[in-house]
């Protein structure tokens, strides 16, 4: 994902971590499920 968006891996990890925190989810899989349900 980072390569496709021309971002560093750490930047993408940081955004994912903050999204997990804000949505109160434990990991990327749970985050993906929450995002799918909202769209």
UniProtKB/TrEMBL annotation:
Record organism: Mycolicibacterium vaccae ATCC 25954
Q: Which GO terms describe its molecular function?
A: DNA binding
* Protein name, per record: Response regulator receiver protein
Q: Which Gene3D superfamilies match?
A: Winged helix-like DNA-binding domain superfamily/Winged helix DNA-binding domain
- UniProt xrefs under InterPro entries: Sig_transdc_resp-reg_C-effctor, WH-like_DNA-bd_sf
Q: Which domain of life is it from?
A: Bacteria
Q: Please give the biological process terms from Gene Ontology that the record holds.
A: regulation of DNA-templated transcription
